[in-house]
Write a sequence for this structure.
DNA sequence: CTCCATTTCAAACGATAGTTTGAAAACTGG
DNA sequence: CCAGTTTTCAAACTATCGTTTGAAATGGAG
C-alpha cells in the first residue's frame, strides 16, 4: 500500500526546510514553498493542515537529524582519551562551517528558534534535549570528576558556546573586519585551536 | 528652534525598539508600532521614510548603546591585572542576563540579525565593529603575547561565545532540562565560573 | 492676528499573506 | 473495467501588510 501522496509530501518538506532555514517562519510564504516544490498551493493545507503544521514537521525532522548525528558519534567516544573525545566533539560541532549541507540547514532552523522560540520548539526541546545534553555533560565530566551536576551542565553549555558562535555567525565572520576563512584547512585549524583552549581550561579546572 | 515633532519621533523609536527586539523585523508591523507609541500610522513614513528607515535608526541606536557601554568600561581595564580585566569583561557580557533592560533589548536585536543579517546591519558591522573587537583582542592579547593577529581575533570571538550562548539562549536555559537560575547570585557564580575556565585556558595557552 | 511651513490624522490603495472551495484528475480495491 | 476514495488543481476569499493621499490641525515668525 504505497501512498502516491508521499511524493508530494516529501517535496513540500524538502522545499520548506530550505526556505524556513534561510528566511525563518515569518519570512517564508506558502507560495514560495509551493513554487520551489512544484506542487499546488492547497497541497500544504491538505497534507499538513496549514503552514504551522508543516513547520512542526520540519522542526521535528531537523531536531531528529541533528541529535541523531551527535548521539551516533558520541556512542564510540568512550574508547577515546578524554582529550581526543573533546577534540572530536568540537570538530563535529564546527562541521556546518564546512558545507551548506543538511546539518547546516537544521542548525539555521534552530538559530531562528533561539531568537524567538515557538511553542512547538519549546515542547520539543524540553522533551528531547536531555540525551544530547547528557553527551556533552558526560564529556566535560571526564575532566571535572568532582563537579556537581549544575556545574557540569554549565560547563557543557559553555563548551557549546565556544563552537556555536563561529557556526551561528559564519556569515558575518567571513566578511570584514574578521575575514574568517571557511576552507577545510582553516576550519581544521580552528577546531584544533578551540580544542587546545578548551582542553587547557578543563585540565586546569579539574 | 525646538522641534515639536521630536516627541513623536522618540515615541516611535522607543516602541519600535521594543517590538523589533521582541518579534524581529518581519514579525513587527507598522500598525503594532503606532498602536504602542500612540501615534498615527503615517507618522512612521513621515519621520523615517518607511519601516526600513525606522529599523535603520533603531539598529544604529542599539549598536551605539552596546559598544559605548563596552568601550567605556574597557578604557580603565589597563589598570587591572589581566585576570581581573578578563573577569570584568565576562561579567559585563553577562549583564543582560540580570534584567530585561535596554541592553537586553539591544542584544535581542543583534540576535535577530545574526540569523539573517540585513544589508543595513552588514554595513554597520563592517564599519564600526572594529573598536569593540579591538577591546576583546587586546584583552586576550595580554594572555597570548606571542600570538599572531588571526589567532587573537579567533580567541576574542571564542571568548565572546562562552558568554553569548548564555545570554542568547537565556529563555530556553531557564526552563527544563537546564533550569538555569537568573537571580543575581547565580549570575555572579556563572560569571566567576566562566572567568575561571577562560583564565585557565588562556594561561595554559600563553 | 495672519501667514505659512510643519506635523498630524483618517481613509484608502495595491500587494501579498494563509486559507477555503468545489470540481477535475488520479489512483486503488474489487 | 468500474466505483469510490484519495489527491491535485485553479480560483477566489478574507485578513493584514507597508505605503500613499489630501485635508485638517498645529506652531512659530513677522
Amino acid at each position: 500500500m504505497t501512498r502516491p501522496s508521499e511524493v508530494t509530501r516529501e517535496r513540500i518538506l524538502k522545499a520548506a526546510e530550505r526556505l524556513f532555514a534561510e528566511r525563518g517562519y515569518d519570512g517564508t510564504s506558502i507560495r514560495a514553498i509551493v513554487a520551489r516544490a512544484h506542487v499546488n498551493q492547497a497541497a500544504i493545507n491538505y497534507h499538513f493542515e496549514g503552514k504551522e503544521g508543516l513547520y512542526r514537521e520540519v522542526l521535528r525532522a531537523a531536531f531528529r537529524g541533528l541529535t541523531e548525528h551527535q548521539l551516533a558519534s558520541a556512542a564510540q567516544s568512550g574508547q577515546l582519551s578524554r582529550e581526543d573525545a573533546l577534540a572530536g566533539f568540537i570538530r563535529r560541532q564546527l562541521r556546518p562551517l564546512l558545507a551548506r549541507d543538511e546539518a547546516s540547514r537544521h542548525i539555521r532552523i534552530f538559530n531562528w528558534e533561539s531568537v524567538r522560540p515557538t511553542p512547538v520548539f519549546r515542547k520539543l526541546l524540553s522533551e528531547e534535549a536531555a540525551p544530547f545534553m547528557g553527551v556533552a555533560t558526560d564529556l566535560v565530566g571526564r575532566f571535572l570528576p568532582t563537579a556537581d551536576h549544575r556545574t557540569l551542565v554549565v560547563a557543557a553549555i559553555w563548551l557549546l558556546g565556544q563552537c556555536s558562535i563561529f557556526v551561528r555567525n559564519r556569515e558575518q565572520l567571513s566578511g570584514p573586519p574578521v575575514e574568517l576563512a571557511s576552507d577545510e584547512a582553516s576550519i581544521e585549524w580552528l577546531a584544533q585551536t578551540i580544542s587546545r583552549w578548551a582542553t587547557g581550561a578543563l585540565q586546569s579546572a579539574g
